[in-house]
Specification:
The chain is an alpha/beta fold and 253 residues long. It has a single domain, classed as TIM Barrel. The chain contains eleven helices and twelve strands. The strands form three sheets. Strands 1-2-3-4-5-8-9-12 form an eight-stranded parallel barrel, surrounded by four helices. The protein has a two-stranded antiparallel sheet with strand order 6-7. Strands 10-11 form a two-stranded antiparallel ribbon. Helix 1 (19-32) links the parallel strand 1 and strand 2 (36-39). Helix 1 runs parallel beside helix 2 (47-57) and helix 6 (104-123) runs parallel beside helix 7. The two termini are 13 Å apart.
Amino acid sequence: MPTVLAAQGYTLRDFAKSPLDIGRTLARVKKIGYDAIQVSGFGPIEYKELAKMLDGEGLICCATHINFERLLSETQRVAEEHAIIKCRHTAPGIIPGPYRAEGAAGYARFALEANLLAIKFKGLGLTLSYHNHDFEFAKLDGKVALDIIYSTALALCAELDTYWVQAGGGDPAHWIRKMKGRSPLLHLKDMVYLGDKVVMAEVGEGNLNWPAIVEAAKFAGVEWYIVEQDHCQRDPFESLAISLRNLQAMGLK
């Protein structure tokens, strides 16, 4: 399928707390120029209602964030919900705290469980990925924690986050290339030094090496380039619009 730019719903979480808010937010996302969105951080809404909203705006749900505990306990139901909104990808947004607290053994345990879950979801028509932050770049027993996950869970795909890879001391382009064939989703946000702090910025407005990142993403076979900013220095809708224009200028559509 062709590469598609998408907006990450978590960026707009403060504007998506009720079904009415969600409908208005989806309309604004479409008006900005996005054709797809990752559903994340939204308030409670029935999946059939969400499907109608997405269809009404001509938006694709490219992926979701679902917490790992629910993915484990309600696997079949999650798959059925994703079928309603015609979504093929999901990912836990973070590793649950108890696994992380166990160190290397906990990451290995998480990876084994995630691998089995990825296999189950594949049989149900869903791809399971993992979204990283910066702490997965800590070395545990001499091995980077994110490596523990991906080298153990071979059925698990990646939703690498460019900002958090960089924040953890990794090279985003290197990690994207490393996950070739296992990277259907990629989170894009930039990093900038503002005052005395390192903060998130719109894609192309900070210091990340975007030519290298885009080249690596094409090499790795990324399907969805998903723009996200956990925290914006301006109106989040404006931030998403700036990132979209900059990505289009880089040749992405």
